[in-house]
Amino acid sequence: MTTACSSAGRDTAPDPSTAAADAEAGWFGDQPVDPSAKTGRVHAVFDSVARRYDLMNDLMSGGIHRLWKRRFIDRIAPRDGRTVLDVAGGTGDIALAMVRRAPAAEVIVCDLTEAMVRVGRDRMIDQGVADQIRPVVGNAEQLPLPDRSVDTYTIAFGLRNVSRIDTALREARRVLRPGGRFFCLEFSRVTDPALERLYQAYSFQVIPRIGAVVARDRDSYRYLVESIRRHPDQAALAGRMEAAGLARVAYENLTFGVAAIHSGWRL
Length: 267
Hints:
Elements lengths: L18 H7 L1 E2 L2 E2 L5 H12 L3 H9 L2 H13 L6 E5 L5 H9 L4 E6 L2 H13 L6 E5 L12 E7 L8 H11 E12 L5 H13 L1 H9 L2 H13 L3 H10 L3 E8 L4 E7 L2
Parallel strand pairs: 3-4, 3-6, 4-5, 6-7
Antiparallel strand pairs: 1-2, 7-9, 8-9
Helix pairs in contact: 3-9, 9-10
């Protein structure tokens, strides 16, 4: 298992601290926190839920997340001979799907939490593909990879947990080769007002209870619900991708906007 390495030699300037970035990083769900403490709090959440994370995803979404991820892989269209970086992909479901589609692709999984990476590594060993996927422990805001080193960057249900989203987007562009593509699958804003009310009621009343019973961790799942509500909507995230230097930005709503796939290019 690889750990984070130095950021020396990067082709982007240091991320300047801004009031907006600190304001966004100053919230852990609906709880105000010191911006410097958010990453540690997020780490603790995923360390706690790692072993039951995939089961909880099935229970919370009724299995629909599997359909979203299948569509995500279709959009990525992984190809043999390409290098793919899957960020916040510790349990390995996206990486495993990619190597099934492209057995000769180089797939790197980077996750903040070692416990999540270990769960993913166990799955890769069980499925006999451990030699095709390289696990890395690292932060999306300071990726332990060289400039222009990957053809495709993916992140599924992880961007909303990043302390400084704009920094992570710039990092994505930094590690992409010219002509490389960025793909993000994330919860977003429901487009139907009636469905939105039902969705919010389910999210805040049911999901934390499921977390308490199945994962024995109500607080972590309440944070995950709150983090969805604070995440930028479809148009706002598209604008921030463009500001980070990504081009030809587009998004596709899934299940009336409960989730969305965002994509862009490094040109």
